């Protein structure tokens, strides 16, 4: 695929063109795969009305996912985690998949927190599970971190891992009118 982007400055009339090649990965139907791990604005990771499913900017399925492109958060924020896991093996009798998901937050090589959940607790559709989680960042001190998500298909024994880096900063202080006035 190719993306051709044309931009016009309405004031000057100048036009710019950017061409970019888009490589779409090939997915093997028998191999456990995932989408990209998206770190999102936790305040904007929300379900949309049924009329808006699959439509609009940042809407993936039934969820609006606004990515934080710079992966910059504050301790007052919630980190939105969004990822789809594909090609899970279904049980012959129940026709449901069985998977575990482990989330690990690291600062450098030090593990800061870890938690797990199973596909039973999550949104499942056939051989696919969608991860939609909010992680409060209040307990993290400012610094650079990584989030690793490991997905294990317990029926096939396959495991896949995705990692994303993010930064946590102290929240900006807001000045009240009294504190902002000179001489105080």
Structure notes:
- By secondary structure, the chain is an all-beta fold.
- The chain has a single domain (27-171), classed as Immunoglobulin-like (Sandwich), CATH 2.60.40.
- Helices cover 2% and strands 49% of the residues.
- The protein contains one helix and 15 strands.
- The chain has one helix at 177-180; strands at 2-8, 15-21, 33-34, 38-41, 46-47, 59-60, 63-64, 72-74, 78-86, 99-107, 110-118, 123-125, 128-136, 143-153, 159-169.
- The strands form four sheets. Strands 3, 4, 9, 12 and 13 form a five-stranded antiparallel sheet that branches. A five-stranded mixed sheet has the order 8-15-14-10-11, with no helix packed on it. Strands 5-7-6 form a three-stranded antiparallel sheet, with no helix packed on it.
- A hairpin with a 5-residue loop joins strand 14 (143-153) and strand 15 (159-169).
- The longest helix is centred in the last third of the chain and has 4 residues, at 177-180.
- The radius of gyration is 21 Å and the shape is globular.
- The mean pLDDT is 87.
The CATH architecture classification is Sandwich
Shape: globular
Order of helices and strands: EEEEEEEEEEEEEEEH
> What's the total helix number?
1
Number of strands: 15
Terminus-to-terminus distance: 60 Å
Parts with pLDDT < 50 across at least 5 consecutive residues: none
If you average the pLDDT, what whole number results? 87
Largest sheet, described in full? Answer: 5 strands, antiparallel
Overall SS class: mainly beta
- Strand fraction equals over 45%
What Rg is obtained from the alpha carbons, in whole angstroms? Answer: 21 Å
CATH topology: Immunoglobulin-like
How many domains? The number is: 1
């Amino acid at each position: 695929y190719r993306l051709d982007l044309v931009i016009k400055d309405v004031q000057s009339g100048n036009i710019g063109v950017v061409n970019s090649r888009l490589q779409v990965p090939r997915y093997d139907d028998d191999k456990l795969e995932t989408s990209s791990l998206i770190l999102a604005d936790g305040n904007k990771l929300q379900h949309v009305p049924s009329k808006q499913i699959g439509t609009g900017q940042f809407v993936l399925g039934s969820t609006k996912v606004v990515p934080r492109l710079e992966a910059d958060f504050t301790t007052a924020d919630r980190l939105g985690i969004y990822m789809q896991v594909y090609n899970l093996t279904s049980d012959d009798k129940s026709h449901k998949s069985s998977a575990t998901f482990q989330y690990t937050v690291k600062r450098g090589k030090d593990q800061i927190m870890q938690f797990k959940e199973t596909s039973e607790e999550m949104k499942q559709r056939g051989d696919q599970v969608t991860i939609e989680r909010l992680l409060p960042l209040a307990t993290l001190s400012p610094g650079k971190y990584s989030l690793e998500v490991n997905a294990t298909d317990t029926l096939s024994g396959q495991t896949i891992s995705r990692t994303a880096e993010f930064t946590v900063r102290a929240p900006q202080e807001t000045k009240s009118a009294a504190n902002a006035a000179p001489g105080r």
